[in-house]
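User: Can you recover a sequence for this backbone? Please restate the input before giving your answer.

Assistant: Of course. Working from this structure:
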């Protein structure tokens, strides 16, 4: 008689999964990927250089459908970089803010309704609680680019060093677009795609904060 021994097995640990809304060419997505996440990106425009799973769709409609179907549960985290033109200072200088719709307000309500942890990134002028204010100089990047992050867990955790601006930092309007894109770490993007990008280092750091918060809650 053959004996079959039941050997203990280790549970398979899957990677955390993030939904990146308004992903553009993938600056934020790359940061989450480098932090160990599986990434799905959504944008209403074609993104031929986006390096991960991509769906071309309206972000509001896509998120609404996921919540209605319950499929939002497959994601551990929802990130959104809602269009910033309505709030950006440069829009007031060069155009009319009223020409740009506010997607942040309805988008935030949907993210809250998803009952998933979430992160919203935007320009410092946007109506967000500044749980984290990040700049390239905090991560050793030779760029000056401030972005605000509001999170469902409210901030806290490890702190990055303060901004360290100096004359050698690249400002977008003072250096060539290619140099600025490369300095941000967005080397796979075109110059045009990088104009709206977020350095991957920012999202990598935000991902680490989320994982730390999750570990604390599970302890």
């Amino acid at each position: 008689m053959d004996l079959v021994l039941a050997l203990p097995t280790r549970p398979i640990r899957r990677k955390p999964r993030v939904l990146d809304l308004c992903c553009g060419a993938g600056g934020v997505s790359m940061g989450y990927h480098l932090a160990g996440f599986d990434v799905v990106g959504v944008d209403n425009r074609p993104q031929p250089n986006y390096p991960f799973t991509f769906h071309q769709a309206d972000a509001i409609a896509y998120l609404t459908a996921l919540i209605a179907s319950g499929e939002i549960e497959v994601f551990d985290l929802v990130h959104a970089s809602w269009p910033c033109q309505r709030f950006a200072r440069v829009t007031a200088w060069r155009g009319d803010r009223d020409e740009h719709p506010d997607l942040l307000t309805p988008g935030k309500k949907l993210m809250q309704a998803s009952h998933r942890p979430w992160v919203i990134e935007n320009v410092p002028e946007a109506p967000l609680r500044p749980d984290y204010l990040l700049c390239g100089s905090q991560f050793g990047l030779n760029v000056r680019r401030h972005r605000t992050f509001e999170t469902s867990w409210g901030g806290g955790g490890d702190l990055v060093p303060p901004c360290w601006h100096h004359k050698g930092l690249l400002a977008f309007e003072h250096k060539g677009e290619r140099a600025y894109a490369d300095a941000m770490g967005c080397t796979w993007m075109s110059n045009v795609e990088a104009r709206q990008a977020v350095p991957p280092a920012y999202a990598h750091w935000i991902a680490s904060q989320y994982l730390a918060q999750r570990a604390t809650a599970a302890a």
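That completes the design. Residues 17-218 form a domain with the Rossmann fold fold (CATH 3.40.50.150).
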